[in-house]
Amino acid sequence: MDQKADHTSSAWPIVNGKEHASPSVFQPEALLREARRQKGVPLLDVPQICMLDPDGDVVRHLRRTGAGRLHQGWACYHTELLAFDLEGIGEVGVVGCAVGAPFAVLVAEQLFVSGCRLLISVTSAGQITDSGPPPYFVLIDRALRDEGTSYHYLPPARFAEAPDASLLARVESALTALPGIAVHRGATWTTDAPYRETDTAIASARDAGALAVEMEAAALHAFATAKRRSVVCFAHVTNTMAQTNGDFEKGEADGATATLAVVAAAARSWRSTAER
Predict the structure, then answer these.
(1) Residue 48: CB partners within 8 Å, gap ≥ 6?
(2) What is the torsional sign of CA 167, 173, 178, 183?
(3) How far apart are CA 94 and CA 39, in angstroms?
(4) Mean pLDDT, residues 78-88 taken together
(5) Averaged pLDDT for residues 124-145
(6) pLDDT tens digit sequence for 184-195
(7) SS3 for the chain, per residue?
(8) pLDDT of residue 275
(9) Sign of the CA dihedral 112, 265, 63, 55?
(10) Are 205 and 213 in contact (CB under 8 A)?
(11) Pseudo-torsion of CA 137, 84, 219, 100, nearest 10°?
């Protein structure tokens, strides 16, 4: 075997060679600077509280109802940001359809250098451990790192923990006051390959304590821990991976009504200490 080729391939496995303490040459601020220049986008802060809506249900709901407005200062090449007013919270920003760990963290990096101070992710998820009939939510306190992005931010470990235990506890307490919305706290399994959720992989995730499978939380937790950002992740358990007919039902307004109630509770919990 060619020794040079062998050395090159062995230098870049998913968990090695990451130099977590070293700064990145490519920075989100620089990317957004060039995007603003090319697109003629004004330098305007995004809302302090933003959310990721991977399925796009909240974004579509806001557009249907006329409640969302395009944010003129969001320069991202890949997404649009809608701003809307959430009762008791004020202006919130939402980015839809950023599915998967790399895309979610790319957007998160750009949001936090654009004025965001709290990011809430609510992602559709498949049931791993039976916690009742879907739909319901899981407040994610740790996520199995079965994706690639988290390893660029933190050294190898089985789980990526939620970055702020105190904030998570306040959010959990606030969620108990939501009528008719079931919320559990626990672990999830973050995967890059939803169509490789084999029986063995599902059993392994269940044995590790995962309640659901999703595609972003481990990476968002790792990013938030490494960059000291405020991030809260929810799994919206809506399905049993299409093992029965009638799966993927999310409730009123395709789940947007319940999702916005959960987001409001999390935002209030953060704001209660952030503004002191």
Answers:
(1) 115, 116, 117, 118
(2) positive
(3) 20
(4) 97
(5) 97
(6) 999 999 999 999
(7) CCHHHHHHHHCCCCCCCCCCCCCCCCCHHHHHHHHHHHHCCCCCCCCCEEEEECCCHHHHHHHHHCCCEECCCCCCCCCCEEEEEECCCEEEEEEECCCCHHHHHHHHHHHHCCCCCEEEEEEEEEECCCCCCCCEEEEEEEEEEECCHHHHCCCCCCEEECCCHHHHHHHHHHHCCCCCCCEEEEEEEEECCHHHCCHHHHHHHHHCCEEEEECCHHHHHHHHHHHCCEEEEEEEEEECCCCCCCCCCCCHHHHHHHHHHHHHHHHHHHHHHHCC
(8) 66
(9) positive
(10) yes
(11) 80
Q: Span 156-172, mean pLDDT? A: 98
Q: How far is CA 89 from the centre of its chain?
A: 20
Q: Show the domains of the chain with their CATH numbers.
A: 44-274 (3.40.50.1580)
Paired tokens of 98: 């950023």
Closest CA to 114 of 86, 69, 72, 53: 72
Beta strand 183-191 with 81-86 is unpaired
Q: Which two tokens stand for residue 13?
A: 């496995």
State the pTM of this model: 0.94
- Token pair, residue 217, equals 């939380």
Q: Rounded CA gap, 126 and 115, in Å?
A: 32
Does the pLDDT of residue 3 top 70, yes or no? no
How many C-beta neighbours within 10 Å does residue 237 have? 28
For residues 253 and 229, the answer to whether their CB atoms sit within 8 Å is no
Candidate from 202-206, 211-215, 248-252 with smallest mean pLDDT: 248-252
